[in-house]
Protein backbone atom coordinates (compact mmCIF):
# COMPACT_ATOMS: atom_id res chain seq x y z
CA UNK A 1 0.00 0.00 0.00
CA UNK A 2 1.30 3.46 -0.93
CA UNK A 3 0.69 4.69 2.64
CA UNK A 4 3.05 2.07 4.08
CA UNK A 5 5.69 2.71 1.45
CA UNK A 6 5.87 6.45 1.94
CA UNK A 7 4.71 6.95 5.56
CA UNK A 8 3.58 10.37 4.33
CA UNK A 9 0.25 12.00 5.18
CA UNK A 10 -0.41 13.00 1.56
CA UNK A 11 1.19 12.03 -1.75
CA UNK A 12 0.85 13.20 -5.37
CA UNK A 13 0.27 10.66 -8.12
CA UNK A 14 0.03 11.04 -11.90
CA UNK A 15 -3.22 9.36 -12.88
CA UNK A 16 -5.34 9.51 -16.04
CA UNK A 17 -3.06 12.26 -17.36
CA UNK A 18 -3.75 14.59 -14.45
CA UNK A 19 -2.61 15.28 -10.91
CA UNK A 20 -4.15 13.29 -8.04
CA UNK A 21 -3.57 13.83 -4.34
CA UNK A 22 -4.01 10.77 -2.13
CA UNK A 23 -4.57 11.59 1.54
CA UNK A 24 -3.89 9.17 4.41
CA UNK A 25 -3.88 11.54 7.39
CA UNK A 26 -7.09 11.92 9.43
CA UNK A 27 -6.31 15.56 10.42
CA UNK A 28 -5.71 16.50 6.77
CA UNK A 29 -8.89 14.70 5.71
CA UNK A 30 -10.79 16.70 8.32
CA UNK A 31 -9.25 19.93 7.05
CA UNK A 32 -10.28 19.12 3.47
CA UNK A 33 -13.82 18.26 4.55
CA UNK A 34 -14.23 21.55 6.40
CA UNK A 35 -13.36 23.51 3.23
CA UNK A 36 -16.11 21.96 1.13
CA UNK A 37 -16.35 24.91 -1.25
CA UNK A 38 -12.65 24.79 -2.16
CA UNK A 39 -12.58 20.99 -2.33
CA UNK A 40 -15.86 19.86 -3.84
CA UNK A 41 -17.47 16.58 -4.86
CA UNK A 42 -20.24 18.05 -7.02
CA UNK A 43 -18.17 18.66 -10.21
CA UNK A 44 -17.04 15.03 -10.12
CA UNK A 45 -20.56 13.86 -9.38
CA UNK A 46 -21.93 15.71 -12.41
CA UNK A 47 -19.37 14.16 -14.74
CA UNK A 48 -19.49 10.58 -13.53
CA UNK A 49 -23.25 10.38 -12.92
CA UNK A 50 -24.06 11.34 -16.51
CA UNK A 51 -21.45 8.91 -17.83
CA UNK A 52 -22.59 6.07 -15.57
CA UNK A 53 -26.31 6.60 -16.14
CA UNK A 54 -25.99 7.23 -19.87
CA UNK A 55 -27.76 10.58 -19.58
CA UNK A 56 -27.75 13.03 -22.51
CA UNK A 57 -25.27 15.81 -23.18
CA UNK A 58 -28.07 18.26 -22.42
CA UNK A 59 -28.39 16.73 -18.95
CA UNK A 60 -24.69 17.28 -18.30
CA UNK A 61 -24.96 20.88 -19.52
CA UNK A 62 -27.84 21.47 -17.11
CA UNK A 63 -25.81 20.10 -14.21
CA UNK A 64 -22.77 22.18 -15.15
CA UNK A 65 -24.93 25.30 -15.54
CA UNK A 66 -25.63 25.22 -11.81
CA UNK A 67 -22.01 24.66 -10.80
CA UNK A 68 -19.94 27.75 -10.06
CA UNK A 69 -16.68 26.39 -8.72
CA UNK A 70 -14.99 29.75 -8.19
CA UNK A 71 -17.80 30.86 -5.88
CA UNK A 72 -18.33 27.48 -4.25
CA UNK A 73 -21.94 27.29 -5.48
CA UNK A 74 -23.23 23.95 -6.75
CA UNK A 75 -27.02 24.07 -7.02
CA UNK A 76 -29.76 22.66 -4.83
CA UNK A 77 -30.10 19.29 -6.54
CA UNK A 78 -26.90 17.95 -5.01
CA UNK A 79 -28.27 18.13 -1.49
CA UNK A 80 -31.90 17.29 -2.17
CA UNK A 81 -31.79 13.85 -0.54
CA UNK A 82 -30.73 15.16 2.87
CA UNK A 83 -34.18 16.53 3.72
CA UNK A 84 -35.96 13.19 3.51
CA UNK A 85 -33.14 11.08 4.98
CA UNK A 86 -32.36 13.09 8.10
CA UNK A 87 -33.99 11.81 11.33
CA UNK A 88 -37.67 12.72 11.40
CA UNK A 89 -41.09 11.83 10.05
CA UNK A 90 -40.08 11.00 6.46
CA UNK A 91 -37.22 8.74 7.51
CA UNK A 92 -39.46 7.05 10.08
CA UNK A 93 -41.96 6.20 7.33
CA UNK A 94 -39.24 4.64 5.17
CA UNK A 95 -37.84 2.72 8.14
CA UNK A 96 -41.28 1.35 8.94
CA UNK A 97 -41.95 0.03 5.43
CA UNK A 98 -38.43 -1.39 5.20
CA UNK A 99 -38.66 -3.13 8.58
CA UNK A 100 -42.04 -4.61 7.64
CA UNK A 101 -40.55 -6.10 4.50
CA UNK A 102 -37.59 -7.48 6.51
CA UNK A 103 -39.95 -9.04 9.04
CA UNK A 104 -41.99 -10.58 6.24
CA UNK A 105 -38.86 -12.00 4.56
CA UNK A 106 -37.70 -13.59 7.81
CA UNK A 107 -41.21 -14.96 8.43
CA UNK A 108 -40.94 -16.66 5.04
CA UNK A 109 -37.82 -18.66 5.90
CA UNK A 110 -38.48 -22.38 5.58
CA UNK A 111 -36.52 -24.15 8.34
CA UNK A 112 -34.25 -26.92 7.14
CA UNK A 113 -33.84 -25.41 3.67
CA UNK A 114 -30.31 -24.70 2.50
CA UNK A 115 -29.98 -21.06 1.48
CA UNK A 116 -27.21 -19.19 -0.30
CA UNK A 117 -26.85 -16.38 2.20
CA UNK A 118 -25.56 -13.60 -0.06
CA UNK A 119 -28.01 -14.33 -2.86
CA UNK A 120 -30.95 -14.54 -0.45
CA UNK A 121 -29.99 -11.31 1.32
CA UNK A 122 -29.46 -9.41 -1.92
CA UNK A 123 -32.98 -10.22 -3.10
CA UNK A 124 -34.75 -9.48 0.16
CA UNK A 125 -32.73 -6.38 1.04
CA UNK A 126 -33.43 -5.08 -2.47
CA UNK A 127 -37.18 -5.44 -1.91
CA UNK A 128 -37.07 -4.02 1.62
CA UNK A 129 -35.15 -0.97 0.47
CA UNK A 130 -36.96 -0.26 -2.79
CA UNK A 131 -40.43 -0.78 -1.33
CA UNK A 132 -39.57 1.94 1.19
CA UNK A 133 -38.30 4.31 -1.51
CA UNK A 134 -40.68 3.66 -4.44
CA UNK A 135 -43.88 2.67 -2.69
CA UNK A 136 -46.61 0.21 -3.76
CA UNK A 137 -45.68 0.41 -7.46
CA UNK A 138 -42.01 -0.38 -6.84
CA UNK A 139 -40.44 -1.36 -10.21
CA UNK A 140 -38.05 -3.74 -8.47
CA UNK A 141 -40.90 -6.11 -7.69
CA UNK A 142 -40.47 -7.24 -11.29
CA UNK A 143 -37.78 -9.92 -11.27
CA UNK A 144 -36.53 -8.82 -14.69
CA UNK A 145 -35.85 -5.31 -13.37
CA UNK A 146 -34.09 -6.58 -10.24
CA UNK A 147 -31.88 -8.94 -12.25
CA UNK A 148 -31.06 -6.29 -14.84
CA UNK A 149 -30.14 -3.81 -12.13
CA UNK A 150 -27.62 -6.10 -10.44
CA UNK A 151 -26.11 -7.08 -13.79
CA UNK A 152 -25.78 -3.36 -14.58
CA UNK A 153 -24.30 -2.70 -11.13
CA UNK A 154 -21.59 -5.33 -11.57
CA UNK A 155 -20.58 -3.76 -14.89
CA UNK A 156 -20.07 -0.22 -13.57
CA UNK A 157 -16.27 -0.03 -14.15
CA UNK A 158 -16.74 -1.00 -17.78
CA UNK A 159 -19.55 1.50 -18.31
CA UNK A 160 -17.37 4.34 -17.03
CA UNK A 161 -14.04 3.50 -18.60
CA UNK A 162 -14.87 1.52 -21.75
CA UNK A 163 -16.63 2.63 -24.96
CA UNK A 164 -20.28 1.65 -25.32
CA UNK A 165 -19.50 -0.65 -28.24
CA UNK A 166 -17.65 -2.90 -25.77
CA UNK A 167 -20.36 -2.74 -23.11
CA UNK A 168 -23.55 -3.23 -25.11
CA UNK A 169 -25.00 -5.93 -22.83
CA UNK A 170 -24.41 -3.73 -19.78
CA UNK A 171 -26.09 -0.81 -21.54
CA UNK A 172 -29.08 -3.05 -22.33
CA UNK A 173 -29.41 -3.99 -18.66
CA UNK A 174 -29.33 -0.33 -17.71
CA UNK A 175 -32.05 0.36 -20.29
CA UNK A 176 -34.32 -2.31 -18.77
CA UNK A 177 -34.18 -0.51 -15.42
CA UNK A 178 -34.51 2.97 -16.94
CA UNK A 179 -37.51 1.86 -19.03
CA UNK A 180 -39.18 0.57 -15.86
CA UNK A 181 -38.68 3.97 -14.24
CA UNK A 182 -40.00 5.72 -17.34
CA UNK A 183 -43.20 3.67 -17.06
CA UNK A 184 -43.29 4.42 -13.30
CA UNK A 185 -43.07 8.20 -13.81
CA UNK A 186 -45.44 8.28 -16.80
CA UNK A 187 -48.18 6.66 -14.71
CA UNK A 188 -47.67 9.01 -11.78
CA UNK A 189 -46.65 6.25 -9.40
CA UNK A 190 -44.11 8.58 -7.78
CA UNK A 191 -47.07 10.32 -6.13
CA UNK A 192 -47.39 7.32 -3.80
CA UNK A 193 -43.67 6.99 -3.07
CA UNK A 194 -41.41 8.22 -0.27
CA UNK A 195 -40.58 11.86 0.36
CA UNK A 196 -37.06 11.02 -0.86
CA UNK A 197 -38.30 10.02 -4.31
CA UNK A 198 -40.74 12.94 -4.50
CA UNK A 199 -38.01 15.44 -3.59
CA UNK A 200 -35.75 14.09 -6.32
CA UNK A 201 -38.55 14.12 -8.85
CA UNK A 202 -39.49 17.72 -8.12
CA UNK A 203 -35.87 18.89 -8.17
CA UNK A 204 -35.14 17.21 -11.49
CA UNK A 205 -38.31 18.61 -13.05
CA UNK A 206 -37.39 22.11 -11.85
CA UNK A 207 -33.96 21.75 -13.46
CA UNK A 208 -35.60 20.88 -16.78
CA UNK A 209 -34.36 17.31 -17.24
CA UNK A 210 -36.25 15.27 -19.82
CA UNK A 211 -38.27 12.22 -18.82
CA UNK A 212 -35.61 10.03 -20.43
CA UNK A 213 -32.81 11.61 -18.38
CA UNK A 214 -34.85 11.50 -15.17
CA UNK A 215 -35.41 7.78 -15.71
CA UNK A 216 -31.73 7.18 -16.34
CA UNK A 217 -30.70 9.24 -13.31
CA UNK A 218 -33.08 7.23 -11.13
CA UNK A 219 -31.18 4.12 -12.16
CA UNK A 220 -28.10 5.82 -10.75
CA UNK A 221 -29.92 6.82 -7.57
CA UNK A 222 -30.80 3.15 -7.08
CA UNK A 223 -27.09 2.32 -6.99
CA UNK A 224 -26.59 4.66 -4.05
CA UNK A 225 -29.67 3.21 -2.36
CA UNK A 226 -28.92 -0.49 -2.85
CA UNK A 227 -25.25 -1.07 -3.40
CA UNK A 228 -23.93 -1.77 0.08
CA UNK A 229 -26.64 -2.66 2.60
CA UNK A 230 -27.01 -6.34 1.77
CA UNK A 231 -23.23 -6.83 1.86
CA UNK A 232 -23.07 -5.19 5.29
CA UNK A 233 -25.78 -7.57 6.55
CA UNK A 234 -23.89 -10.53 5.05
CA UNK A 235 -20.63 -9.72 6.86
CA UNK A 236 -22.39 -8.87 10.11
CA UNK A 237 -24.20 -12.22 10.10
CA UNK A 238 -20.89 -13.94 9.39
CA UNK A 239 -19.08 -12.33 12.31
CA UNK A 240 -21.94 -12.64 14.81
CA UNK A 241 -22.81 -16.29 14.11
CA UNK A 242 -19.22 -17.45 13.69
CA UNK A 243 -18.33 -16.24 17.20
CA UNK A 244 -20.17 -17.98 20.04
CA UNK A 245 -18.99 -15.29 22.46
CA UNK A 246 -20.28 -12.42 20.32
CA UNK A 247 -23.54 -14.26 19.60
CA UNK A 248 -24.21 -14.92 23.27
CA UNK A 249 -23.58 -11.31 24.29
CA UNK A 250 -25.62 -9.87 21.42
CA UNK A 251 -28.55 -12.18 22.08
CA UNK A 252 -28.54 -11.08 25.72
CA UNK A 253 -28.59 -7.41 24.62
CA UNK A 254 -31.32 -7.83 22.02
CA UNK A 255 -33.47 -9.73 24.53
CA UNK A 256 -33.44 -6.56 26.65
CA UNK A 257 -35.16 -4.56 23.88
CA UNK A 258 -37.88 -7.11 23.19
CA UNK A 259 -41.29 -6.88 24.81
CA UNK A 260 -43.04 -10.23 24.94
CA UNK A 261 -46.75 -10.79 25.55
CA UNK A 262 -49.50 -13.30 24.84
CA UNK A 263 -52.71 -12.41 23.06
CA UNK A 264 -55.29 -13.89 20.75
CA UNK A 265 -55.04 -13.98 16.96
CA UNK A 266 -57.97 -15.59 15.12
CA UNK A 267 -59.17 -16.88 18.49
CA UNK A 268 -55.88 -18.62 19.30
CA UNK A 269 -53.45 -17.69 22.06
CA UNK A 270 -50.34 -16.41 20.33
CA UNK A 271 -47.01 -15.04 21.54
CA UNK A 272 -46.21 -11.50 20.42
CA UNK A 273 -42.61 -10.22 20.31
CA UNK A 274 -41.94 -6.53 19.72
CA UNK A 275 -38.34 -5.51 18.96
CA UNK A 276 -37.69 -1.85 19.81
CA UNK A 277 -34.93 -0.82 17.39
CA UNK A 278 -34.95 2.71 18.84
CA UNK A 279 -33.14 1.25 21.89
CA UNK A 280 -30.27 -0.43 20.06
CA UNK A 281 -27.74 2.36 20.66
CA UNK A 282 -28.54 2.62 24.36
CA UNK A 283 -29.02 -1.07 25.20
CA UNK A 284 -26.85 -3.04 22.73
CA UNK A 285 -23.22 -1.82 22.92
CA UNK A 286 -21.74 -5.15 21.79
CA UNK A 287 -24.04 -5.25 18.75
CA UNK A 288 -23.18 -1.66 17.83
CA UNK A 289 -19.47 -2.37 18.30
CA UNK A 290 -19.66 -5.51 16.15
CA UNK A 291 -21.44 -3.57 13.42
CA UNK A 292 -18.83 -0.80 13.45
CA UNK A 293 -15.97 -3.28 13.43
CA UNK A 294 -17.56 -5.05 10.47
CA UNK A 295 -17.79 -1.75 8.62
CA UNK A 296 -14.23 -0.81 9.60
CA UNK A 297 -12.66 -3.98 8.24
CA UNK A 298 -14.77 -4.17 5.08
CA UNK A 299 -15.18 -0.52 4.20
CA UNK A 300 -13.53 0.32 0.89
CA UNK A 301 -15.26 3.56 0.01
CA UNK A 302 -13.25 6.40 -1.48
CA UNK A 303 -14.06 10.01 -0.74
CA UNK A 304 -13.25 12.13 -3.80
CA UNK A 305 -12.96 15.88 -4.19
CA UNK A 306 -11.94 18.28 -6.94
CA UNK A 307 -9.72 21.25 -6.16
CA UNK A 308 -11.70 24.31 -7.24
CA UNK A 309 -8.94 26.90 -6.64
CA UNK A 310 -5.19 26.84 -6.16
CA UNK A 311 -4.98 26.38 -2.40
CA UNK A 312 -2.31 26.17 0.29
CA UNK A 313 -3.73 23.55 2.64
CA UNK A 314 -2.82 23.94 6.32
CA UNK A 315 -0.08 26.41 5.31
CA UNK A 316 1.91 23.43 4.04
CA UNK A 317 0.55 21.67 0.95
CA UNK A 318 0.01 23.36 -2.40
CA UNK A 319 -3.01 21.86 -4.16
CA UNK A 320 -3.56 22.91 -7.77
CA UNK A 321 -6.92 23.79 -9.32
CA UNK A 322 -8.52 20.97 -11.30
CA UNK A 323 -6.63 18.22 -9.51
CA UNK A 324 -8.47 15.38 -7.81
CA UNK A 325 -8.23 14.46 -4.14
CA UNK A 326 -8.70 10.83 -3.12
CA UNK A 327 -9.22 9.82 0.51
CA UNK A 328 -9.36 5.99 0.65
CA UNK A 329 -11.24 4.62 3.64
CA UNK A 330 -9.24 1.41 3.78
CA UNK A 331 -5.96 3.27 4.33
CA UNK A 332 -7.35 4.88 7.50
CA UNK A 333 -9.21 1.79 8.72
CA UNK A 334 -6.13 -0.45 8.49
CA UNK A 335 -3.56 1.99 9.87
CA UNK A 336 -1.82 0.39 12.86
CA UNK A 337 -0.78 3.85 14.08
CA UNK A 338 -4.47 4.55 14.66
CA UNK A 339 -5.91 1.16 15.62
CA UNK A 340 -2.91 -0.64 17.05
CA UNK A 341 -0.92 -3.71 15.95
CA UNK A 342 -4.11 -5.76 15.54
CA UNK A 343 -5.60 -3.30 13.03
CA UNK A 344 -6.12 -6.09 10.46
CA UNK A 345 -7.87 -8.39 12.94
CA UNK A 346 -11.58 -8.49 13.69
CA UNK A 347 -12.40 -7.63 17.32
CA UNK A 348 -16.13 -7.44 17.93
CA UNK A 349 -15.64 -5.37 21.10
CA UNK A 350 -13.19 -2.87 19.59
CA UNK A 351 -15.82 -0.10 19.61
CA UNK A 352 -17.23 -1.01 23.00
CA UNK A 353 -17.63 2.26 24.99
CA UNK A 354 -14.35 3.54 26.46
CA UNK A 355 -12.43 0.63 24.94
CA UNK A 356 -11.13 1.92 21.60
CA UNK A 357 -7.60 3.21 22.11
CA UNK A 358 -4.49 3.78 20.05
CA UNK A 359 -1.17 2.06 20.60
CA UNK A 360 -0.25 4.93 22.92
CA UNK A 361 -3.32 4.49 25.07
CA UNK A 362 -5.17 7.51 23.67
CA UNK A 363 -8.74 7.21 22.46
CA UNK A 364 -9.19 6.71 18.73
CA UNK A 365 -10.61 9.81 17.12
CA UNK A 366 -14.21 9.33 15.93
CA UNK A 367 -13.06 10.87 12.64
CA UNK A 368 -10.95 7.76 12.01
CA UNK A 369 -14.12 5.73 11.46
CA UNK A 370 -15.04 6.62 7.89
CA UNK A 371 -17.41 3.90 6.70
CA UNK A 372 -19.99 6.54 5.79
CA UNK A 373 -17.48 9.14 4.59
CA UNK A 374 -17.37 12.51 6.28
CA UNK A 375 -18.04 16.22 6.02
CA UNK A 376 -20.86 17.62 3.92
CA UNK A 377 -20.87 14.53 1.69
CA UNK A 378 -21.23 12.03 4.53
CA UNK A 379 -23.64 9.35 3.31
CA UNK A 380 -27.12 10.83 3.82
CA UNK A 381 -28.64 7.35 3.79
CA UNK A 382 -26.60 6.10 6.74
CA UNK A 383 -29.50 6.29 9.20
CA UNK A 384 -31.84 4.41 6.85
CA UNK A 385 -29.27 1.71 6.06
CA UNK A 386 -28.19 1.26 9.68
CA UNK A 387 -31.77 0.85 10.90
CA UNK A 388 -32.47 -1.82 8.31
CA UNK A 389 -29.24 -3.65 9.16
CA UNK A 390 -30.14 -3.63 12.85
CA UNK A 391 -33.62 -4.98 12.11
CA UNK A 392 -32.14 -7.87 10.13
CA UNK A 393 -29.57 -8.89 12.72
CA UNK A 394 -31.80 -8.33 15.78
CA UNK A 395 -34.58 -10.61 14.54
CA UNK A 396 -32.27 -13.25 13.10
CA UNK A 397 -30.15 -13.69 16.25
CA UNK A 398 -33.27 -14.17 18.37
CA UNK A 399 -35.26 -16.43 16.05
CA UNK A 400 -32.61 -18.64 14.46
CA UNK A 401 -29.37 -20.51 14.78
CA UNK A 402 -27.62 -20.05 11.44
CA UNK A 403 -25.09 -22.69 10.49
CA UNK A 404 -23.02 -23.17 7.31
CA UNK A 405 -23.79 -26.42 5.54
CA UNK A 406 -20.03 -27.01 5.20
CA UNK A 407 -19.82 -27.38 8.98
CA UNK A 408 -17.60 -24.36 9.63
CA UNK A 409 -17.64 -20.62 9.06
CA UNK A 410 -14.90 -20.12 6.50
CA UNK A 411 -14.47 -16.45 5.72
CA UNK A 412 -14.78 -15.74 1.97
CA UNK A 413 -12.08 -13.72 0.27
CA UNK A 414 -13.05 -10.28 -0.98
CA UNK A 415 -10.54 -9.46 -3.69
CA UNK A 416 -12.79 -8.27 -6.52
CA UNK A 417 -14.07 -4.84 -5.50
CA UNK A 418 -16.33 -2.80 -7.72
CA UNK A 419 -15.57 0.92 -7.70
CA UNK A 420 -19.19 1.65 -6.79
CA UNK A 421 -18.96 -0.46 -3.64
CA UNK A 422 -18.28 1.13 -0.27
CA UNK A 423 -18.16 -2.33 1.35
CA UNK A 424 -16.20 -5.35 0.13
CA UNK A 425 -18.28 -8.04 -1.52
CA UNK A 426 -17.39 -11.68 -0.84
CA UNK A 427 -15.86 -13.51 -3.78
CA UNK A 428 -18.12 -16.49 -3.16
CA UNK A 429 -21.35 -17.17 -1.33
CA UNK A 430 -21.93 -19.20 1.83
CA UNK A 431 -24.63 -21.86 1.93
CA UNK A 432 -26.36 -21.89 5.31
CA UNK A 433 -29.21 -23.56 7.18
CA UNK A 434 -31.68 -21.66 9.38
CA UNK A 435 -32.72 -23.64 12.48
CA UNK A 436 -35.47 -22.03 14.60
CA UNK A 437 -34.78 -21.46 18.30
CA UNK A 438 -37.42 -23.15 20.42
CA UNK A 439 -38.58 -20.22 22.54
CA UNK A 440 -38.86 -17.82 19.59
CA UNK A 441 -40.15 -20.19 16.92
CA UNK A 442 -43.85 -19.48 17.54
CA UNK A 443 -45.93 -16.32 17.53
CA UNK A 444 -45.80 -13.06 15.65
CA UNK A 445 -42.99 -10.53 15.46
CA UNK A 446 -43.22 -6.76 15.23
CA UNK A 447 -40.61 -4.05 14.95
CA UNK A 448 -40.75 -0.60 16.47
CA UNK A 449 -38.59 1.90 14.59
CA UNK A 450 -40.19 5.16 15.76
CA UNK A 451 -43.08 6.70 17.62
CA UNK A 452 -46.15 5.06 15.98
CA UNK A 453 -48.08 8.35 15.92
CA UNK A 454 -45.40 9.85 13.68
CA UNK A 455 -45.86 7.29 10.91
CA UNK A 456 -48.48 7.52 8.18
CA UNK A 457 -48.12 5.83 4.81
CA UNK A 458 -50.10 7.12 1.83
CA UNK A 459 -50.78 4.59 -0.90
CA UNK A 460 -53.24 4.02 -3.69
CA UNK A 461 -56.55 2.46 -2.63
CA UNK A 462 -54.49 -0.45 -1.40
CA UNK A 463 -50.85 -1.35 -1.59
CA UNK A 464 -48.68 -4.07 -0.14
CA UNK A 465 -46.02 -3.82 2.54
CA UNK A 466 -44.55 -7.22 3.14
CA UNK A 467 -47.50 -9.59 2.91
CA UNK A 468 -50.07 -7.28 4.47
CA UNK A 469 -52.54 -4.87 2.87
CA UNK A 470 -52.01 -1.21 3.70
CA UNK A 471 -54.81 1.35 3.63
CA UNK A 472 -54.59 5.15 3.58
CA UNK A 473 -53.09 5.33 7.05
CA UNK A 474 -50.98 2.68 8.74
CA UNK A 475 -49.38 2.79 12.15
CA UNK A 476 -46.42 0.85 13.48
CA UNK A 477 -48.51 -0.37 16.41
CA UNK A 478 -51.47 -1.49 14.25
CA UNK A 479 -53.43 -4.17 16.10
CA UNK A 480 -53.71 -6.35 13.01
CA UNK A 481 -49.92 -6.70 12.75
CA UNK A 482 -49.09 -10.25 11.81
CA UNK A 483 -52.71 -11.29 11.53
The H-level CATH homologous superfamily of the domain at 77-299 and 380-470, spelled out, is Cytochrome P450
The CATH topology annotation of the domain at 77-299 and 380-470 reads as Cytochrome p450
Tell me what portion of residues adopts beta-strand conformation: 15-25%
Gyration radius over CA: 23 Å
Overall geometric form: globular
Per DSSP, the total helix count is 19
Q: What is the CA–CA distance across the termini?
A: 55 Å
Any overview of this molecule?
The protein contains 19 helices and 15 strands. It is an alpha+beta fold. The chain has a domain at 77-299 and 380-470: Cytochrome P450 (Cytochrome p450, Orthogonal Bundle). The chain has a 5-stranded mixed β-sheet with strand order 1-2-10-7-3. Strands 4-12-11 form a 3-stranded antiparallel β-sheet. Strand 1 and strand 2 (18-23) form a beta hairpin. Helix 6 runs antiparallel to helix 7. Its cofactor is heme. Heme binds at residue 379. GO terms for molecular function: heme binding; iron ion binding; monooxygenase activity; oxidoreductase activity, acting on paired donors, with incorporation or reduction of molecular oxygen. Belongs to the cytochrome P450 family. This is Cytochrome P450.
How would you summarize the topology of this molecule?
Elements: H1 2-6, E1 10-15, E2 18-23, H2 26-34, E3 39-40, H3 42-53, H4 57-65, H5 81-85, H6 89-107, E4 114-116, H7 117-134, H8 143-154, H9 156-161, H10 168-186, H11 195-207, H12 211-226, H13 229-241, H14 244-255, E5 258-265, E6 268-276, H15 280-283, H16 285-298, E7 302-307, E8 311-313, E9 317-319, E10 324-328, H17 329-333, H18 336-339, H19 382-399, E11 400-404, E12 431-436, E13 444-448, E14 463-465, E15 468-470
Parallel strand pairs: 2-10, 6-13
Antiparallel strand pairs: 1-2, 3-7, 4-12, 5-6, 7-10, 8-9, 11-12, 14-15
Helix pairs in contact: 3-4, 3-12, 6-7, 6-19, 7-13, 8-10, 10-12, 13-16, 13-19, 14-16
Keywords: Heme, Iron, Metal-binding, Monooxygenase, Oxidoreductase
InterPro entries: CYP450_monoxygenase_sec-met, Cyt_P450, Cyt_P450_CS, Cyt_P450_E_grp-IV, Cyt_P450_sf
Cofactor: heme
Amino acid sequence: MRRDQSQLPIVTLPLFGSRVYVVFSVPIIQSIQKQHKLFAFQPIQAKFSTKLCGASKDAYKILRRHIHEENGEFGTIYGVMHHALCPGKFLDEMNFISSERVRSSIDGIRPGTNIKLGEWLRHHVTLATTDAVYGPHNPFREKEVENAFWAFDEAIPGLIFLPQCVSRQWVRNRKVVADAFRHYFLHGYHEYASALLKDFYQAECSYGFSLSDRSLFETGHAIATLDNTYTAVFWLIFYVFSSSSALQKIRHEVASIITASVGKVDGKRTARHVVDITKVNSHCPFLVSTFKETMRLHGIGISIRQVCKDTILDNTYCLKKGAMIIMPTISVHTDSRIWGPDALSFKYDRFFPDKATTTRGNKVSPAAFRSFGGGTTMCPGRHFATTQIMVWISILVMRYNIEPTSGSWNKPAAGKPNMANAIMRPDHDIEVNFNPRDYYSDGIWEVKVANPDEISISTTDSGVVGDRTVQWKLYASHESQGA
